[in-house]
Amino acid sequence: MKVAIYSNDGSTSNRVAQQLKTKIDESKILEYDGLNPEIVISVGGDGTLLSAFHHYNDAVSKVRFVGIHTGHLGFYTDWRDYEVNELVESLENDNGQSVSYPLLSIKVKYSDDGPDDNFIALNESTLKRINGTMVTDIYIKGEFFEKFRGDGLCVSTPTGSTAYNKSVGGAIINPQLNAIQVSEMASINNRVFRTLGSPIIIPPDEWITIVPDNQEHNILTCDQLLIHNRPIKSIQYSICNERIYFAQYRHTHFWKRVSNSFIGVHPDD
Ligand code: NAP
Ligand code: MN
């Protein structure tokens, strides 16, 4: 089985990545292959897994990811830095077990002459404006829904719902649900301007189109990537046809992960 390692630059991560590489080289079953891996092991935090996902973006449905965390427990990372031996053993006994989660499809049309763009996000995409209020029309399934005025919008996946989306008051979605969420950032609401004011959750057969009033000075992100400085005509968000796969050798219940991360250790633990 072909395995790649994607590590951040921290000293613990480097040490763990080196240990892992040695173990893979020693193994008769595992083979290191950074170019065409079947398994990608990310070493670091959730941010590192996000970078690994974008690095292997083109092969997203062919690989399975595994996350080792070298800091605090993460949402995409199940293994601790001192568990390298157990992880290698699990890889050697792999029988293809996996769990998959939805991804966000982002289709961007520009008002310049350049080509349109398609991206996929694992956490979220945001659209923000740097100078002045962002004013955009929002359509759901092609039907006008509302005119938004405020700082910006965040469109997230279920696994991304615990990231930026949570900070802007979005709901946490169990990633067993195939859905995307749109949450507002500081919308302006008064007698003149009105938005719904609460996050909305979109099923697989619907899509969101965002059309900015002013095509310039918008900032579009896709996970930790800043997309472009080009004038945006419209953005279409939907659930991606592809999903991300994780090699599942152990299972942490989603709500337990949420409670451990945000509330603290439970007295029963
Ligand atoms: P970062 O600034 O290190 O990330 C911010 C925090 O978000 C880190 O603690 C990171 O965990 C955590 N995180 C990432 N994905 C998560 C997830 N799915 N569920 C829960 N927490 C998650 O930058 P980064 O590590 O490159 O991550 C990029 C992400 O940061 C973006 O996709 C966005 O979701 C998030 N972000 C949040 C805000 C905000 O809340 N105001 C603003 C900008 C970006 P690790 O320490 O394990 O990496
Ligand atoms: Mn980070």
Give a written overview of the molecule:
The structure is a single chain. By secondary structure, the chain is an alpha+beta fold. It folds into 2 domains: 2-97 and 248-262, Probable inorganic polyphosphate/atp-NAD kinase, domain 1 (Rossmann fold), CATH 3.40.50.10330; 102-241, Sandwich (Tumour Suppressor Smad4), CATH 2.60.200. Helix content is 18%, strand content 39%. It contains 5 helices and 16 strands. The protein has helices at residues 11-26, 46-55, 84-92, 164-167, 254-262, and strands at residues 2-7, 31-32, 39-44, 64-69, 79-80, 98-110, 117-121, 124-129, 134-140, 143-156, 180-187, 200-202, 208-212, 218-222, 225-226, 232-247. Strands 6, 7, 8, 9, 10, 11, 12, 13, 14, 15 and 16 form an 11-stranded antiparallel sheet that branches. Strands 2-1-3-4-5 form a 5-stranded parallel sheet, with helices on both faces. Strand 9 and strand 10 (143-156) form a beta hairpin. The two termini are 36 Å apart. 38% of the residues are buried. The model has no long low-confidence stretch (mean pLDDT 95). The protein binds NADP nicotinamide-adenine-dinucleotide phosphate (NAP) and manganese (II) ion (MN). Residues 45-47, 50, 71, 74-75, 123-124, 159-160, 162-164, 167, 223-224 line the site of NADP nicotinamide-adenine-dinucleotide phosphate (NAP). It catalyses: NAD(+) + ATP = ADP + NADP(+) + H(+). Involved in the regulation of the intracellular balance of NAD and NADP, and is a key enzyme in the biosynthesis of NADP. Catalyzes specifically the phosphorylation on 2'-hydroxyl of the adenosine moiety of NAD to yield NADP.
